[in-house]
Amino acid sequence: MPIKLPLFRKKVLELLSSTDETKVMHVSDTPESAYRFIGELIEGIRPEYVIHTGDLADNIKLERRPDMKPLYIGAVRKLARVLKNPGMELYVVPGNEDEPGVVQEFFGGSVVEPGTIVEIGGMRFALGHTWKDVVGLDADFRLYGHNFKLIDRGLNGVLGVNFVLLPSGRTYRVKYPGGTDFDRGYKMWRGM
To answer: How many CB atoms lie under 10 A from the CB of residue 191?
Structure first.
C-alpha cells in the first residue's frame, strides 16, 4: 500500500520524477520506520545517486547500547536491500551510532570516510556525518546529519530527504513521514 502524501509533497515528487536532470538523493539518521518511505522515493524518483550520511538504524542507539548489535545488524541488512539498486551509485558515511565493520560488510565499496569530497555532474559534494565534518571544506554542497544544525551551503539530512538536481543545482527537501523524529528518539525539537 503506497504512503499517502500531502498535496505539496506530491507536486514535488512529480517534479522530481519527471525531470531529465541528474538526481542526487540524500538521507541521514534513518530509523527503520523510514526505510519503506525511502524505498518508495527511490522507486518513484529513480535517483542516479544516493548518499546516506550516517546513523543507518537511528532507532537503535548502538553507541549507548552495544548489546543491541544483533538488532542493528538486522536493520542494516534491511536498509542495504532498500539502498542497493542497479544503475544507482551509492555513498555511505558511517555515523556515531554505526558499527564500522557492519557498515563495511553490507555496503563495501560504497563506504566513504567523513570529510570525503565526491564530484558528481561537475559539482563538489562534501560528505560527513556531522556539520563539523564538512563546514570548512571547499564544496558546492555540504551533506551531513546528526542534529538540527544548519550551515552555509549545507543540506541536513535529519530535516528531510534532500534532492539536488544537476546541472541546475536546484534543491528540494521532502519531509520524512510523521513520527520519524520520535522513532529516532527525539521527544521534541530542543534547538539543537
So the answer is: 5
Alpha carbons 45 and 135: distance in angstroms, whole number? 29
Q: Is the pLDDT assigned to residue 71 strictly greater than 80?
A: yes
Residue 64 in this model has a pLDDT that exceeds 90: no
The rounded distance, in Å, linking the Cα atoms of 83 and 97 is: 19
Q: Quote the cell numbers at residue 40.
A: 518508495
Question: Distances in Å between the alpha carbon of 112 and those of 19, 31, 37, 45, 67?
Answer: 28, 21, 24, 24, 26
Mean pLDDT is lowest, of 9-23, 74-88, 126-140, 151-165, for: 9-23
**Percentage of residues in the chain having pLDDT higher than 90:** 74
Q: Which residue has the cell 520524477?
A: 17
**Could you tell me the CA-to-CA distances from 106 to 25, 37, 40, 54, 162 in Å, in that order?**
20, 20, 21, 14, 23
- 56: helix, coil or strand? coil
Catalogue the E-assigned strands of 53-120.
89-92, 116-120
Whether 184 and 18 have beta carbons less than 8 Å apart is answered as: no
